[in-house]
Amino acid sequence: MPRLPIAVIQNVANDGPGYFADWAERYDHSLQVVKVWAGEMVPTSIAGYAGLCVLGGPMSVNDELPHLRATEHLIREAIASDVPVLGHCLGGQLMASACGARIRRAPRQEIGWITIDAEAHPTALNWFGAERFEIFQWHGDSFELPVGAQLIASSEHCRHQAFSLGRLHLAMQFHCEITAEKIAAWTSSAEGQAEIAASDSPGVQSVTAIGAQTARLLPQSHRIAEAIYRRWASGLRHA
Question: How far is the C-alpha of 77 from the C-alpha of 79, rounded, in Å?
Fold first, then answer.
């Protein structure tokens, strides 16, 4: 029996599924990438999908953009239907917002390779397979926790790094889907360089520092992503 596709909401051209697509191809999961930046419409129903993956973007959840509200609607339907939802950065914030939590400016902006501490309980270890790891970040906002959510990861600069909702759903502030190509695109862009240069946050690393660490830390990032995606895929809906 053929597998149902995973819906992937891509908000901007330079923030595609990255390593998530690599993982999906290896394990024979089909993706239906919805390129809202190119005018494609967010699905109006989760029916026919095995899961929902929401990617990042430079906009704020609080911006009045129709596709953000449509994505929140789809997230709520997926959660109500026990269809697993996975949020990366903006995607994690949209999950929190869809469940009634507020999105605010983070205590400190984070850009670069940041150390994450998993919470000391089995749920966190089950998702990450590690108690501490370094992973890529690029965000200025952060989510509060929805009712019923369990905080499972924190960092020095931003306490709310990841939460689970029930056994199926995971929201992350960080970019476990990151690839060397995505990092190069973000840090070489005029907008990215200007954002880094303008920040005085201790959580923001220079372009040089990011580049110097990427080759060393990317394999660890991929191992964490594998653990997350494997755990998440265990709940995917079947046809």
Answer: 6
